[in-house]
Amino acid sequence: MEFKTDALVLRSADYRENDRIVTLLTAERGKLSATMRGVRKAGAKLHFASQPFCFAEYVFAEKGGRYTVTAASLHDGFYGLREDIAALYGAACVAQASDLLLYEGMQGGLLLVAAVRALGELSAGEGAGAVVRFLAQALALAGYPVEAGVCPVCGAVPLGRMKFDMDRGIFTCAAHSDGVPASEATYLSLRAAIGGGKGTEDGDLRALRLLGAYFRDKTEAEPKALGEYLRLLTPVH
Ligand SMILES: [Zn+2]
Predict the structure, then answer these.
(1) Where are the domains of the chain?
(2) CA 148 to CA 184: how far, in whole Å?
(3) Could you count the other beta carbons within 10 Å of the beta carbon of residue 52?
């Protein structure tokens, strides 16, 4: 049986002599692994479609629950990522978070849209803010939303030193929950990201750290690529 769907390559691993196995985020079938035959041979027509971050329309043949890619037509290869190491690491965060958050039966369509948008922004030179926006969206789609609104206890906008309540994914004043300490810059960056805007460079870094902790708390999975991205972005003193 054959079918086609838009998909993004999250991971790619060499297999046998000339093949690859790709893990894809698809619009219609969530996460899916497929074999690509002969793509490591010189001049292979579908080589491009076996590369990480390739966004294309893929045609699959299905047999006994196994998938093989038979054709692909490119939407975007995000080639700008290859020219900027920070952007490449940011893209790895997007791919790994998608991979870890996609559970069986989850609709992939909205996550795919968010991931493709983030890769486009990173490829065009946008920094960590693109990853903050993506993680906030992806976590919300997986059922773990983060809010940066008013403190639910007193109704005021939290200022200065505040707390982030991991259980509820919300910020409160320092005195109004026993969450983890968070800074105003973190709050402002996340509020901007959720509203589609931009935070400061320092705030985005802090927001990434907080989202990493929240990610681990909710999924019990380790977003290693995020740790590597943060090490790359953090200035050495
Ligand atoms: Zn309060």
Answers:
(1) 2-76, 80-233
(2) 11
(3) 17
Tens of pLDDT, residues 45-80: 999 999 999 999 999 999 999 999 999 999 999 999
Cα 152 to ligand 1 centroid, rounded to whole Å? 7
| 185 CA from centroid of ligand 1 (Å) | 17
Count Cβ atoms below 10 Å from residue 206 Cβ, excluding itself.
Answer: 22
Q: Which segments of the chain are extended strands (E)?
A: 2-15, 19-26, 30-36, 55-63, 66-76, 162-165, 170-173, 180-182
List pLDDT tens digits, range 127-183. 999 999 999 999 999 999 999 999 999 999 999 999 999 999 999 999 999 999 999
Q: How far is the CA of 162 from the centre of ligand 1 (A)?
A: 9
CA of 103 to the centre of ligand 1 (A): 35
177 C-alpha to ligand 1 centroid (Å): 8
Q: How many CB atoms lie within 10 A of CB 144?
A: 16
In the chain the first and final C-alpha atoms are separated, in Å, by 58
Domain 2-76 belongs in CATH node 2.40.50.140:
yes
Cα 159 to ligand 1 centre (Å): 9
Strand partners of residue 181: 163
Closest by alpha carbon to 91, among 76, 75, 69, 110? 76
CATH topology classification for 80-233: de novo design (two linked rop proteins) (1.20.1440)
